[in-house]
Amino acid sequence: MSSCVRAVVRGVGARLPERIVTNDELSERVDTSDRWIRERTGIHQRHIAAEGELTSDLAVAAARRALERAGRRPEDVDLLLVATSTPDNTFPATATAVQRKLGIGPAMAFDMQAVCAGYVYALTMAEALLCCGRARRALVIGAETFSRILDWEDRATCVLFGDGAGALLLEAEEGTGTMLDRGILAATLSADGRHYEHLYVDGGPSSSGTVGHLRMNGREVFRHAVAVLVSSAHRACADLGITPAEIDWFVPHQANRRIIEAVAKRLEIPAERVVATVDRHANTSAASIPLALEHAWREGRLRPGDLVLASAIGGGFAWGSLLLRW
């Protein structure tokens, strides 16, 4: 039996801003209500970054926790990847700001931009670099301050999003080449730019010269999200020779409770094996999957050897699924 290198999780961390904004508080600002938001999205509250609190600040806090739990130091890291659509600045990469704040020396550091699918994309990129020997230890962070790009007069979008960061420390480890190995076992990524205008920000350096605000065609996002998340999950599982019903935990992008429930139902995954944090975090884009993983781990549900299916879709549309043995 041939061996192979796997990207194995050694530590997990998270950071949520201190300020919590409830649905009732939002209803004082826009024409909405707690009942309206809960029934349509499942969201009860969201965390909002404080004035002056940057995406890199949240990322650093999550990364420090992941390093501590892994028993590693910042200087042990030779690859730093930050999945974000809300960077501190247009450039340099937010990953380099995190690198500086953590005190990591010269190493690979760059951002991954695939919006809400960013973390699945980033994990897949990190795995490729670890498995080909370009790096030995990777910090993969999903961090967002979506509150900075929301139109707070648009009730259709401002109620959906929150801020936060989550991180995994991955290490290259020799495996057996079977599905019993720990680490990332399979992944599938895709995108379809024909749907560009269904979920986008109406600004940018090359177009308007401004940051812009998030705009969304909710009906189209919902319709496509369910279909592509189901198909990509099936593809990832087929690569491993299993069905989605055989996984231990389904950790989807936390966008909307209805989407999560619809996808889980079509994949025949029971509700008790779905990790859902959308009620307390709202949609934190690229941070949602690592935040959900950290939450499940901290509660003691996610244990060594568990097989995790993570799936996400974001603007573009970009989407993907990944199988990880914890």
Total strands: the figure is 13
Q: Please, how many domains?
A: 2
**N- to C-terminal separation?**
22 Å
Cα shape? globular
The CATH level-2 architecture of the largest domain is identified as: 3-Layer(aba) Sandwich
| Number of discrete helical segments | 10
Q: How would you state the average pLDDT, rounded?
A: 97
Rounded to the nearest angstrom, the radius of gyration is: 18 Å
Can you walk through the features of this model?
The protein contains 10 helices and 13 strands. Helices cover 32% and strands 27% of the residues. It has a 5-stranded mixed beta sheet with strand order 1-7-6-4-5, sandwiched between helices. Strands 8-13-12-11 form a 4-stranded mixed beta sheet, with helices on both faces. It folds into 2 domains: 4-175, 3-Layer(aba) Sandwich (Peroxisomal Thiolase, Chain A, domain 1), CATH 3.40.47.10; 183-325, Peroxisomal Thiolase, Chain A, domain 1 (3-Layer(aba) Sandwich), CATH 3.40.47. The chain has helices at 23-27, 34-41, 55-70, 94-102, 118-131, 155-158, 218-240, 257-267, 278-281, 288-298, and strands at 4-15, 19-22, 45-48, 79-83, 108-112, 137-145, 163-175, 183-191, 199-201, 214-216, 249-252, 307-314, 318-325. It is globular, with a radius of gyration of 18 Å. Helix 3 (55-70) packs across helix 4 (94-102). It has 326 residues and is of the alpha/beta class.
